Protein 1
Amino acid sequence: MKINWFEEKIKKFSSIGGYQKPEYLQDAVKLDSNENYVISRQFQNDVISTAKKNSDVREYPLGGIERLIPMISKFVKIPCSMIGVGNGSDQILDLILSNFASNQTKILTSNPTFGFFEERCKLYSIPMIAIPFSNDMKLNIKDFIKQSKNANILYLDSPNNPTGFQFSKNELQQLIASFHGPVIIDEAYGEFGNYSLANMVKTQENLIVVQTLSKSFGLAGLRLGYFIANKKFTDVFMNVLQYPYPLSTLTIESGILALEKSTIMKDAANNIKIERKRIIETLQKYDAFEVFDSKANFVLFDAHGAYKRVYSALAEQGISIRKLGKIGTHDGCLRVTIGTKEMNSKFLLAIRDLLG
Ligand SMILES: Cc1ncc(COP(=O)(O)O)c(C=O)c1O
């Protein structure tokens, strides 16, 4: 058969593989995707049922985003003209990459970085300069500043997925100020971290801060992400690059209601931080594990040669965590999301039964 350009493309894409979702375990204690179960089902029900009453899905959501953006603006305390939205922050990152990057633009990031972002760079053949984490899962700002001269775009998830690392605010500000191209700071886990750089956008033209309702608000299934950036970028993104109706009516209405109840989100984030400390301190008691500090709603630990056994033993008991394997010199990495107190206790008990 004659191979044409279309088949060549399909062959190229199939060699990439795509983003690896976690294994699906029915009725599992789900600690594998950094979702937020501390936000109650009641919160979700209240938001969705009111959103349903306010929605007429026979219509396109004309004017909906225009009502949502002032709510985000009030929440982040940044003018509406500097805020754009997307179908999850995934879609925002994807639209930035597909329109502003190419095989001629080098992206400076960390290794590891957010898996979806890395996959998208592969898909668009965008070269990456990826600075590795040290053995104790930290990054060195000097390495970034040094390499920044060779790069066109800077992307950092702050805190980082999967390590949970976050630069000090000062260091990150210094890096951004010294970088000449666009800087994407992905704050998907920002509410669990030490700070947000959203305000810096007011003085730093090249900065795009990406945030989401998926993690802190516990609304991953709604697919609602947003960004904060200078007005020129925001206008082009929203009027030219973005789809005409990227968010469903139910997403828009639910988002408006959730943002009105942001104190519930803040309480949940605080509880998660307390539970994160408990999980880190308990896991640290096992010699079999090396546990890394985290500023996000998950904890990374290296279970060395035992990682497959730990993962499978938990899965057999209906507890799903993320199996990552090798990261740098650490060959048995596992990542566990911080769930409710009850979920976390089940996870810790299962570990105790296995190793105690
Ligand atoms: C660093 C990072 N950025 C973005 C996302 C995607 O978030 P969203 O649900 O808004 O697409 C994730 C989700 O895991 C993430 O880990």
Protein 2
Amino acid sequence: MKKQTKNYKKIFKNHVNFDWDTEKYQIHHVNGNHEDNRINNLVLLPTNMHITFHSLYSELIFYKDMFEMDNNYQEYVDWERIEKYLYLKSSIFNLERARAISSLQDDPAFYIKRLHEEEVLYAQKYDKEI
Ligand SMILES: [Zn+2]
């Protein structure tokens, strides 16, 4: 397990060829499979965003289970939370694209800039919650 943890960090670092503040940014597995360490499945996210994403995702799984047990559960769903999840998911998609573009251009500075732009957008939209 420990070896695997080091592996994906090493793979990502080798690919982007720059260091990041590990308190501020974490690596996310885009498809949710932590054993899939292919470079296009790894993306660097602001830590707050990463934690929020996973907590919203857990909530979504909970809703899905509740729907299966009771179709009327819809009225208890917090749709704003779902909207937030979808927004984050699309942000992660954009970050992944930015990373892919920056690697093509061999310009990590571009990726860092793009990452910060996304982070600012995210902070503006969910200012009070993070
Ligand atoms: Zn993650």
